[in-house]
Structures are given as structure tokens and as C-alpha cells.
Design goal:
By secondary structure, the chain is mainly α. It folds into two domains: about 5-70, Winged helix-like DNA-binding domain superfamily/Winged helix DNA-binding domain (Arc Repressor Mutant, subunit A, Orthogonal Bundle), CATH 1.10.10.10; about 75-215, GntR ligand-binding domain-like (Four Helix Bundle (Hemerythrin (Met), subunit A), Up-down Bundle), CATH 1.20.120. The protein is built from ten helices and two strands. The protein has a two-stranded antiparallel sheet with strand order 1-2. The termini are far apart.
């Protein structure tokens, strides 16, 4: 396996473990232990940790520790603003190009999303939500947009998991249905605005995150 692929895989494995809580906020990270866990050398792990620190998911004090960053509502709000703007742009660019199959893919993803929420399966809900919003991102064919989302979405997803584990997450199903209807009607501005509102509706998650991060 090439070094670049090892580095990318290590980055994605550690990133996903932080986002899904396998590596908990505040947990100390040891590159040798991570390398053994992932079955790779320490070099791609170190490179992955550097990249994750730049994203705000890892915090390092040279010579002292490397740890999973605590939940940070302020950082997540900054990521929310950028992520909402990118999804608004994705929908605006995608709506004129969406096929009937694309619309059906969005509808199917929302059905899976609703079922996952009903079953309290947060991992499946996150996957289905990614599939739903990913349709417009892919159809927009905008690589710059995808790069920005790759940078900021993981920070937001950490807190969004709290929302999807609560009853307030059910409101996202209706928001998705609204986006689908506007896309199907070829209402570019309406769909783009609805997409932005969907991502800006995470205030409950920030409140939950602040509570989770507060000392007992």
C-alpha cells in the first residue's frame, strides 16, 4: 500500500473514531498505540494527527500530550456557518441538474434516516444524512466545495450526534422532505435556502454539547 494511501486511511480511521466517540473528548492519544491498533507504522499516524490538529479535532502540547479535543460549541458554530453556506451552494448548483434518480436517491436516504432515528441508531442516521446531502454535493460537481466540507463537517458532526440521539433530531426528517419538494419543483432559491436553514437548525446540538462539556 502506498504511503499516501496509508496516510489517508490512518487519517480517516482516527477522524471517524473521534467523530463517533470511540475516541472520547479529552482522551490522550499515543501514536505507538494508535499505530498498533490500526496496523500501520507510526509515520502515517503522526501525519494524520497533525492534519486532525489543523481541523481542530486533536489538541497537542509538544513534549506533554496529544489528546482528542474537548467538545467546543464555539468551534462547531464556526463550522456550522461554513458548512451551511457550502450546502446552500451545492443545492443551488445542483437543482438544475438533478435527475429523477437523484431525487429518488434523496427520498430513499431520508426514509433510511427517519428509520434510523426511530430505532435510535445514531450511526445509521449520520450515514443516511450524509447520503441525503451528498446527492447535491456530488451533482454540483464542485471540487472546491467538497474540499471545504471535508475540512469542517467532522467538527460539526461530533455535536450533531448529540442531536440525532435526542427527540429534536426528528425535525430534520421534515426539513429534508421540504428540500426534496423544492428540488423536485426546480425552485433553486427555495431549495438552496431550505438547505441552509437545515444546517443552521442545530442550536439544540450546541446546547447539548455545552452541557456535555460542562463540569459536573
Amino acid at each position: 500500500m502506498s504511503r499516501s494511501l496509508l496516510r489517508e486511511n490512518a487519517y480517516r480511521w482516527i477522524r471517524d473514531a473521534i467523530v463517533d466517540g470511540t475516541l472520547a473528548p479529552g482522551e490522550r492519544l499515543n501514536d505507538a498505540e494508535l499505530a498498533e491498533w490500526l496496523g500501520v507504522s507510526r509515520t502515517p499516524v503522526r501525519e494524520a494527527l497533525t492534519r486532525l490538529e489543523e481541523m481542530g479535532l486533536v489538541r497537542t502540547k509538544p513534549g506533554r500530550y496529544t489528546m482528542v479535543s474537548p467538545l467546543d460549541a464555539h468551534a462547531a458554530r464556526a463550522a456550522q456557518t461554513v458548512t451551511a453556506a457550502m450546502h446552500e451552494l451545492a443545492v443551488r448548483e445542483a437543482v438544475p441538474r438533478l435527475s429523477a434518480d437523484d431525487i429518488e436517491a434523496m427520498r430513499a436516504a431520508n426514509v433510511h434516516f427517519a428509520a434510523a432515528l426511530q430505532a435510535d441508531d445514531v450511526d445509521a442516521a449520520i450515514t443516511a444524512d450524509d447520503e441525503f446531502h451528498g446527492v447535491a454535493v456530488v451533482v454540483s460537481a464542485n471540487p472546491a466545495l467538497r474540499t471545504v466540507l471535508e475540512q469542517f463537517t467532522p467538527v460539526l458532526r461530533r455535536l450533531e450526534r448529540l442531536r440525532f440521539s435526542s427527540l429534536s433530531g426528528r425535525s430534520s426528517v421534515a426539513l429534508h422532505e421540504r428540500i426534496i419538494a423544492l428540488c423536485e419543483a426546480r425552485d433553486v432559491e427555495g431549495a438552496a435556502t431550505a438547505a441552509r436553514e437545515n444546517w443552521m437548525s442545530l442550536d439544540e446540538a450546541f446546547e447539548l454539547g455545552a452541557a456535555a462539556d460542562s463540569p459536573a
